[in-house]
Amino acid sequence: MIPAPPTLRFDCVAREFPGGVRAVDGVTLSLSPGSFTAVIGPSGCGKTTLIRLAAGLDVPTAGRVDAGTTKRSCSLCFQDPRLLPWRRVVDNVALPLELVGVPRARRHASALEVLQAAGLAHASRMLPAQLSGGMRMRVALARALVTQPQVLLLDEPCSAVDEFTRMQLDAEILRAWRACGATTMLVTHSVSEAVWLADRVVVMAHGRVHADHTVRVDRASRDRSDSAFLGEVEHCMRLLAAASGKAAA
Amino acid sequence: MSARAAAVRAVGWPLLGVAIVLVAWQFGVMLSGVAPYLLPSPAAIARAMWEGRDMLASAMARTALGAAIGFACAAAAGGLLGSVIALIPFLRRSLYPLATVLQMVPVVAVAPLLQLWVDNGLPMAILSAAIVALFPVLAATIDGQASVDPGLRELFKLHGATRLRRWWKLDLPWSLPATATGLRIAAGLAVIGAVVGEFVSGYGGTRAPLGIVIQAAMRDARTDLVFAAVALTTVVGFALFGAVSLVGWLLVRRWHASAVNDSEERR
């Protein structure tokens, strides 16, 4: 039985880099179990540092991050695909399981299952160089899901793809989130994407939480051309503009 | 471009270049009237090679054996030592500069010392070849493993990989193209090292390798035979280089840009 997803907590978390740069400065956030939270903000506001702290790739200089789970059940999808060029797609997807010693037959079955769900089964024997940029990113997402994570961290996974591929990837992220039910945190530059995917949008500026907004459009009735959805996007845009002004100041 | 046309282009142009040089050389010697002991013509060298074919074939086999075993030792030691040094930062800081300094010492200068430690003949040729070929493999292995994409290292860290597992599954395959380059350089150097070892140790009689053939032919003023033996050392070097290049290409042909671009250019 898969355990219930945990709460992801940041308690007064700070991360100061040598030279006195405070990328994250006293962030307190609590992401409820199974929720989908998007973090937006101007460049350099500390979004990526925050997600790296959640993934355990960096350690806070103050405060505490509690992913409420073991390291293995926390997964991160990076900005770039980071696929091993000499490995076939299926072996790339199976890598996280391989690194924790899951037997070959089992990890391949899991990888193929995730690829099947993502509509990538036909590419399982291909090498990364044979895939388009969008497909590589989908493979990276599949790799993040193969461990059946309870906490899923997405660091701008759509930043390097065109608009159409971005929409495909968004749909894929939503499908994956519904399937695994993980507590999910997405860092993005796209306000529209944040509103489309998340229940909650956190706006950061200067390493701090500038605004915390709950999306009021029901997930089932979200339509990118609907006025209620566009109104939410506009509201978040205003929050972001205010945060950007604050950052510039 | 068809595969046949690509093969003709890959082999045909270099062969044409060699043919032009040989023809120019032949006519240059004939027209200038230069003494054969100073510069024999390609035809005279070919004749010497044909007349001494049995002795030269045996000499080439001996030199090739010394160079190949020396190269194999350097490849194994360089790859292993390079991996250990790349894996342990303390060793990289302390041993790598030392290895760089040691490779500056000319093998000709230390060859007499080597005679104290190993027997003359084949062991000396092997050791000399291994010493000369070691550094390129060592340096390429260390640099290749130190240049692993930090993003991929982070991926392995994220999934809790141990250092040893990361080395096996990431550092080693990532560094293959760089190591293959080091091995190709080492292949050519191994032949030079073997011949230097033969010059110094000298084992003659019926077991003379190319280095000794060159020395004996020089004493007898048989410049044509010297050229013939030198040409055969080049053949040994080329064969070793070709074999190593082929293995390297087979290992990375499907994924590394160097091999993929090469295939696309030929198309």
Description of the structure:
The complex is a heterodimer of chains A (249) and B (267). Chain A has helices at residues 47-55, 89-99, 104-117, 133-145, 163-180, 191-197, 227-248; strands at residues 8-17, 21-31, 36-40, 62-66, 74-77, 151-155, 183-187, 200-205, 208-214. With 249 residues, chain A is an alpha/beta fold. Chain A has a domain at 8-80 and 150-248: 3-Layer(aba) Sandwich (Rossmann fold). A 6-stranded mixed beta sheet of chain A has the order 5-6-7-3-8-9, with helices on both faces. Chain A has a 3-stranded antiparallel beta sheet with strand order 2-1-4, covered by helices on one side. In chain A, strand 6 (151-155), helix 5 and strand 7 (183-187) form a beta-alpha-beta unit. In chain A, helix 2 (89-99) packs across helix 3 (104-117). In chain A, 46% of the residues are buried. Chain B has 267 residues and is mostly helical. Chain B folds into 2 domains: 1-34; 40-260, MetI-like fold (Orthogonal Bundle). Chain B has helices spanning 3-32, 42-51, 53-87, 89-103, 107-117, 122-146, 150-158, 163-201, 210-219, 223-252, 257-266. Chain B is globular, with a radius of gyration of 22 Å. The interface between A and B is medium-sized, with 21 and 20 residues.
Give the CATH topology of the domain at 8-80 and 150-248 in chain A.
Answer: Rossmann fold
Secondary-structure element order of chain A, N to C? EEEHEEHHHEHEHEEH
Can you count the beta strands of chain B?
A: 0
Q: What can be said about the biggest beta sheet of chain A?
A: 6 strands, mixed
Shape of chain B: globular
Low-confidence stretches of chain A: none
Main sheet properties of chain B = none
Output mean pLDDT of chain B. Answer: 89
Structural class of chain A: alpha/beta
CATH superfamily of the largest domain in chain B: MetI-like
- Can you tell me the number of structural domains of chain B? 2
The CATH C-level name of the domain at 8-80 and 150-248 in chain A is Alpha Beta
Strand segment count of chain A: 9
Low-confidence stretches of chain B: none
**CATH-defined architecture of the domain at 8-80 and 150-248 in chain A:** 3-Layer(aba) Sandwich
